[in-house]
Amino acid sequence: MAVIKQDDGLWLVDISDGKSSLTGKRIRHRKSNFLTKKEAEEYEAYYRIHKLNQIQNTKKLTISSLYVMLKEEDELRGNKRGTIDTQNSYYTQYVSRFFENADMSSVTIQDVKKYRDWLIEHPSVKGGTLTATHVNQQMIFVHKLFDIAISKGFRQDNPCDAIRKLPEKHKEMSYYTPEQFKKFESYFEESEYPFKLLYRVLMFTGIRMGEALALTWRDVFLDEGYIKIRKSAYYRNGKTHIGSVKTTQSNREIYIHKAFVDELKTWKSVQNQRLSKLTDSTDDLQIFQFSGEPMTAPNVSNFRAAFKKRLPEDFKLIRNHDFRHSHVAFLINQGLRRGEGKDYIFFTLMKRLGHSSINTTINIYSHLFPSQQKEVANAFDDF
């Protein structure tokens, strides 16, 4: 057996590479002290594929071998680090456990359906059970694994092709009107201005949270009055990572109104006075930074938890992503009031939001929220 448990509880990889043509002795490769069996199996798969060139000569296609090939493909394609990290969590927490002893070259549709049923019934690592959306995302990952098996000649078919997505329960879209947003801002304390500024950026630009947390002053062109979106931040394993934006179309410039430009200029001056001694260039500071470290996603989550506790019971705190929806709802309403055509409004929104297709914008925002119907009706007062 190539993967063996050591007496001390750690794991050993012992791989045979045939016999030496010179001495006739068996050639072995050993590596010890892996913390888990899973780590040892991944190393074995990597060594067989990359050092021994045993892709086609294995008797069994293990899940660890298949995952090594997928990771190599992702690196070649330059896939986003965030995507790769998410796939790794799917693999580590779920896929590798279920398919630990499977021969992936002969897994059937029924086997994959059993995996999906297992996901539905299996407790989530965060508590509770996985949502239909999460299960569907896991199945997309498994589909990719079988696509790799096909491309490497291990399979002729992808058993995921015949499996339909689970119906997803979409969260109701919420938003703040300008009046509600001003009410929301009134609950901030003076010392919480950096968080207040964060939500102003979300409301006034419609950018994603990850895009906002990646902003430095090098991305903010105050004289020209726009913000350049080129990066996105995500938090994983106790550290913030800066990667590329969601799609190519997400690279964009977003113009902001003059009053907000002036506010940013004032804040930049205040921030410079506080933090200039901590950096060689204040242009490299995150625009929300108020200490030696940039604001992170956990900082925002912790702030929201404390902030929510002091809100009145009759005031709803919307999700972070709903500020993006609030931005869109306001622009749609303003466009209707100005008599702009629907096609023009959606085209403008597509560019501003960084969607890869206008169909995405239409699918998300073609309906007007029920609570907005009166506002739309009132727009005809100026007819």
Set out the fold topology.
Layout (H helix, E strand, L loop, with lengths): L2 E3 L5 E9 L6 E9 L2 H14 L12 H15 L3 H18 L10 H13 L10 H20 L26 H8 L7 H13 L3 H5 L6 E2 L4 E4 L1 E6 L2 E6 L7 E4 L2 H18 L21 H13 L12 H16 L4 H12 L4 H8 L7 H6 L5
Number of helices: 14
Largest sheet: 3 strands, antiparallel
Q: What's the domain count? A: 3
Structural class: mainly alpha
Mean pLDDT: 87
GO biological process, one term: DNA integration
InterPro entries: AP2-like_int_N, DNA_brk_join_enz, Integrase-like_cat_sf, Integrase_catalytic, Integrase_recombinase_N, Tyrosine_recombinase_XerCD
GO molecular function: DNA binding
Keywords: DNA recombination, DNA-binding
Describe this structure in words.
- The protein is mostly helical and 383 residues long.
- A hairpin with a 4-residue loop joins strand 4 and strand 5.
- The chain has a three-stranded antiparallel sheet, covered by helices on one side. A three-stranded antiparallel sheet has the order 4-5-8, with no helix packed on it. A two-stranded antiparallel ribbon has the order 6-7.
- It is elongated, with a radius of gyration of 26 Å.
- Helix content is 47%, strand content 11%.
